[in-house]
Design goal:
The chain contains eleven helices and ten strands. By secondary structure, the chain is an alpha/beta fold. The radius of gyration is 19 Å and the shape is globular. Bound molecules: pyridoxal-5'-phosphate. The site of pyridoxal-5'-phosphate has 21 residues, from helix 1, helix 2, strand 7 and helix 7.
């Protein structure tokens, strides 16, 4: 993978307050390996390929709508690497064609194995089995989070991002915020918007980042993947007002909570805030299919 030369715009979101909010459009970095996924995979893939494995194979884990699975499959296609996705939910083996993420991953050449939720939980055991079966493979953890991923996140920061007081990102497995925290400038505070109700995340991020310049805020609406009507309204309004598409699982939740915090005067007057748009837009069609079945309002796509 190359250091992307795509210029990443930083766009101001106008507010009626003496606070400046900007969005860094990491989602534009690649049409399918978008946002933080690109950077979390960057050193993982490059160091693996540098070792010249014969028959390179990338194996990773994810749920039915996983942005990370979508990104790894697209990467496999682009760099002609075999990919295998270990997918949570054995029932999906009979209906993966109905799931836009899994269907696209398949079109991009990814093989899939569907495992029960119980088996999926024991990833250490699954990994041991996979290591035996594919001794040359690169096995990347769920969400792509590991030490190399954290190193790759440094490319989301640059001279321009140094002028902000706060750096904000959605948090799933913690690799992205760990990288932002590690590579942030001394005076910057990092805010992570947890979209997973996981109380162990703070310690995990602290271990990966080795810095305590970050704070985690709950933004999950009860559990990972839950899409409330308020969330849908916020995403659609945001698009109407600012012309930027958000996703319902990560960036929509982050910005809704961030707007609430701005409203509640969490940030001192004059603060300059930068939120990272980490992509995840591929998940909208799957989310809309579920919403349609539930007779609910949909997320506007076009
Ligand atoms: C769109 C989006 N935003 C944020 C995140 C959170 O990243 P992390 O799992 O590194 O916390 C993810 C997961 O990779 C994601 O897909």
């Amino acid at each position: 993978m190359k250091i992307s030369t795509v210029p990443i715009p930083i766009i101001q979101i106008p507010l009626q307050k003496n606070i400046q909010l900007f969005l860094k459009r990491e989602d534009l970095i690649h049409p399918q390996i978008s946002g933080n996924k690109y950077w979390k995979l960057f050193y993982n893939i490059n160091s693996y390929l540098d070792q010249n494995p014969g028959n390179p194979v990338i194996i990773t884990f994810g749920g039915a709508f996983s942005n990370h699975i979508a990104a790894v499959a697209a990467l496999g296609k682009e760099y002609q690497l075999k990919t295998l996705g270990i997918i949570r939910g054995e029932e999906l083996q009979y209906k993966w064609q109905d799931n836009p993420t899994l269907k696209l991953a398949h079109q991009n050449g990814m093989d899939s194995r569907f495992v029960s939720r119980e088996e999926y939980r024991d990833k250490d055991f699954l990994t041991q089995i996979l290591e035996k079966e594919f001794p040359n493979a690169l096995i990347i953890p769920e969400g792509g989070t590991n030490e190399r991923a954290v190193e790759g996140v440094q490319f989301m920061l640059n001279e321009e991002t140094k002028s902000f007081d706060y750096l904000c990102t959605a948090v799933g497995t913690g690799g992205t915020i760990a990288g932002i925290s590690r590579f942030a400038a001394e005076n910057q505070k990092v805010l992570g918007f947890k979209v997973v109700d996981d109380q162990s995340l703070y310690d995990k991020v602290l271990k990966l980042s080795a810095k305590n310049n970050f704070e985690l805020v709950e933004a999950h609406d009860g559990k990972y993947g839950k899409i409330t009507n308020e969330n849908i309204r916020f995403i659609n309004d945001f698009k109407d007002k600012f012309g930027i598409q958000l996703d319902p699982i990560y960036t929509g939740k982050m910005l809704r909570k961030l707007f609430e915090m701005i409203e509640e005067n969490y940030f001192p007057e004059g603060s300059k805030i930068l939120a990272f748009h980490t992509g995840g837009l591929q998940g909208i069609s799957g989310a809309n299919e579920l919403l349609k079945k539930q007779n609910r309002d949909l997320i506007d796509i076009n």
